[in-house]
Design brief:
The complex is a heterodimer of chains A (230) and B (414).
Chain A (H helix, E strand, L loop, with lengths): L1 E12 L2 E13 L4 E5 L6 H8 L7 E6 L2 E2 L5 H11 E5 L10 H11 L4 H14 L15 H13 L5 E5 L7 H16 L3 E5 L3 H4 L4 E6 L2 E7 L2 H4 L1
Parallel strand pairs in A: 3-8, 3-9, 6-7, 7-8
Antiparallel strand pairs in A: 1-2, 1-4, 4-5, 9-10
Chain B lengths: L1 H4 L2 H13 L1 H37 L5 E6 L17 E2 H10 L3 E16 L2 E10 L3 H4 L3 E5 L4 H5 L4 E5 H7 L10 E4 L2 E10 L11 E4 H7 L5 E2 L1 E6 L5 H15 L10 E5 H44 L1 H9 L4 H38 L14 H28 L2 H6 L2
Parallel strand pairs in B: 4-9, 6-8
Antiparallel strand pairs in B: 1-11, 1-12, 2-10, 3-4, 3-7, 3-11, 5-8, 6-9, 7-8
The chains are: A alpha/beta (230), B alpha+beta (414).
The complex binds adenosine-5'-diphosphate (ADP) and magnesium ion (MG).
GO molecular function (chain A): ATP binding; ATP hydrolysis activity; transmembrane transporter activity
InterPro entries (chain A): AAA+_ATPase, ABC_transporter-like_ATP-bd, ABC_transporter-like_CS, MacB-like_ATP-bd, P-loop_NTPase
Keywords (chain A): ATP-binding, Nucleotide-binding, Translocase, Transport
Chain lengths: 230, 414
Amino acid sequence: MIEIKNLHKSYPMGKESLHVLKGLNLKIEEGEFVSIMGSSGSGKSTLLNIVGLLDVHDEGDYILNGELIENLNEKKAAVLRNKFLGFVFQSFNLINYKTALENVSLPLYYAGVGRKERQETAMEYLEKVGLGAWANHLPSELSGGQKQRVAIARALVTQPKVILADEPTGALDSTTTDSVMDLLKEINNEGMTVFVITHEEEVAEQSKRIVRLKDGVIISDEKVNQKVKA
Amino acid sequence: MIKFLFDRDTWQEIYSSIRKNKLRTGITIIGVMWGIFLLVVLLGAARGVGNKFDTIFGDFATNSVFIWGQQTSMPFKGFQEGKQLRLKRADVGKIEAEIKGIEYILPRNITNSLVVNETKTLTTGVFGDYPLLDLLQKKHMVFGRFINENDIVYKKKVCVIENETYKQLFDKGVNPLGTYLTINEVSYQIVGLYKNQMRMGGPQGGIHIPFTTFQQVYNQADNIGWLMVTASEGFDIRQMEEDIKLMLRNIHSVHPEDERAFGSFNMGDQISKVTGFLTGMQFLTWFVGIATLIAGVFAIGNILLITVKERTNEIGIRRALGAKPAEIRRQIILESIFLTTIAGTLGIIFGGLVLMLINAAVGQGDEATLVNPTVDIPVILIAFATLVVLGTLIGLIPAQRAVSIRPIEALREE
Ligand SMILES: Nc1ncnc2c1ncn2[C@@H]1O[C@H](COP(=O)(O)OP(=O)(O)O)[C@@H](O)[C@H]1O
Ligand SMILES: [Mg+2]
C-alpha cells in the first residue's frame, strides 16, 4: 500500500539546511493500523505530509498504491489525494462557514460527484460517526470531539485507501480521545488502512503496529499485543 | 467550464465568500460602481453640452464671414487716409463673379430707429433683409412668416419682429400679427414673430423689414451695411475672406495693403474655438472616467488579494481534499468577475438614472443647458467589457498566489 525506501527530507534554513528525515524505510500493507511515535520535532509530521502528498521528499523512493511518486504536478497530486487519501488533522481543519454536512461532502464535490448523491453519501458517513442529527450545524456549534468526528467522516467519504491522521487526539480530552480512537479502530476493522501520528503511549497502544522515530531515523518498529489492552 | 458556471455549488461558494466579507465586498462594489457611474454621467453630460452647441450652431451657417466698410488707414491714389468706405450694391455682383466657391452672398443693412406701438416706444436696431437670411441664420417663427420675395419686389411696408423686441412693445399674450408698428414715423404691418436660440453672429434681434423697403425709406441708395458670405463645401472661408477684402480694396481704390479699410468677422474661427473646447472636455471626461475605473479594478484586485491571504488556510484544506489548482483559480477569478459585473451594472443603472434626472431638470425647452444627454450603448459595452477583462486579470494575481504555495504551507497558516 505504502512503501518508503531510503527517504530523506531537509528544510532549508537560510544558508544551512535542517536534515529532518534521514533515510527512512517503511512498508505498510493494506488494512494495517500503524502509529508513528516520537517526541516533538522528531519529524513525524514531515513524514506524514510526504506520505499525504502535501509536501515533497528530497531523496529516496515513495510508492503509493503501486505507483512511484516522482515529478508529481499539483494537479495530479490533487487527484491522488482525493482518490487515495483521507486526512484528519489535530486542529480539525473544518471550513468554518460550512455546515457539518457541507464539510463532509466537499471532497465528493472535488471528485466530481453529483449534488444529490453527494448529499446522500455525506449524510451516510455523518450517521456512521454518530452525528446525523448535527448535519446542519456549523463547526462552531460542535464540541472538539464532534468536530474530529466530522473530520473523520470527511476523510472517509471518498472511500480512500488510507486515512492519515496527524495527532487526531492532540486537542481532545481523554474521554473524547477514547471515542475518537474507537472510531478509528472500527474503521480499521472494516478494512481501512489507518496511519496515525501521536506522541501519547495510550493512543499508540490502541493501534496494531508502532513505529518509533527519533532524530529522523526509525529506532523501532513492532506489532502491538492488542490483548494486553483489552 | 460551462458546467462549472451553471453549477449551483460554484455560486454558493461565491455567495458564502462574499457574504463572509461584507465590508470588503461593499467597498469593492462601491469603488467600481463609482468609476463606471462617473464615466456614464460625465460622457452623457459632455454629449448633452455638445448637442446643445450643435443645435445652436445648426441655426447658423458656420462657414460664413461678415464684411463691412471702415475707414482707410493709408493714403492711396490721391485720397487722404481716413476716407469713410461703404459697401455698394454693385460690389455684390462683382464679388460673385470673381471669387470662386461662394455659396451665398447676402447684403444687410441696419439702423437704429424709434419704434412705437400705441403707448410703448423702444429704440432698437431695424434691419433691411432678404429672405435668404432665414437660410443662413435660421429664424424660428412663432407666428407668421419671414420676409419673402414679394415683399422685396414690391417694397412692402411689412416687418418681422424678434421675441425680445415683441415683449418690450406688447402686453403679454397679445397676438401681434396684422397689427402695425410705427418705425421712424412710417407704419409697418407685422407679418411674423420669431424666437432666437442664441444671440450670436453679428447684430441680431430687433426688427426686420424688406431690404428694398429699407433702401427707400432710409434713403440708402446703393449702400450696404455689411455683407454676409458663406463658402461652398470644400472652400476655405478664411482664404475667401482675404480674397474678398483684397478685391474690395481694389474696387474702392484703397491701398492693397490697407488691412483696416474693410472689417470682417469669421464665424468659423469662433466656432472652432468652441468645438475645440468641447473636444478637450470630452477627452478629459474619458480620462477621468477611465482613471476612476482602473482605480476601482485595482481596488478589487487588492481586496481579493487580502481575501486570499485570509483564506489561505481554507485553500490549503480544499487542496488537501483534492481541489485542483485550476479549480481554486477559477473560483477566485469568477468571484472577481462577479463583483465587477454587479458593480458595473449598478454603476450603469445609477448613471443612467442621473442622466435622466439631469435631462428632466435642465434638458428641457429652449433654455436647456443640455440637450439629450446620452451615452452610446457600444461605448458602455466596451467600458463594461474592459472592466470585466481587467477584473479577470486582476483576479488572476491573488488566484495565482493561492495555488503557487505548497498545500502544507497553506495549511500551516492560521
Ligand atoms: N516548513 C518547515 N521549514 C523549516 N523547518 C521545518 C518545517 N516544518 C518542520 N520543520 C522542522 O522540522 C523538524 C520536524 O518537524 P515535524 O515533522 O513537524 O516534527 P513533529 O511532527 O514530529 O513534531 C522540526 O525541527 C521543525 O522545526
Ligand atoms: Mg507534528
